[in-house]
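User:
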Amino acid sequence: MLGRRARSAAAPAAGIKNPNDDKSLSSKDVRILNAEILRVLNKHRVPAIGFVNEKGIAEAPAREERLAVLKVWLASGMQLGNHTYSHADFDQLSVTEFAN
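Assistant: Predicted structure:
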């Protein structure tokens, strides 16, 4: 029983990227992905925080649809965090650019 309680009270899961800030995905894809993420998290009673890059929302062609997905996330009992407005893609930076 103690192990079960410890797991249910654990910190939010790490390593899941919220697709809501990915501008390359259509709004329909974002809705589908978020619905599945929320279904699994809620099924297993796993709390989560979705970190959002505001730029991915602000510059999305369907901004209101992306905001609606965030509202569903909150209505599902999850939390949202501010990742940043934007940042460099570290996979595209040279070592020197990264160091600067």
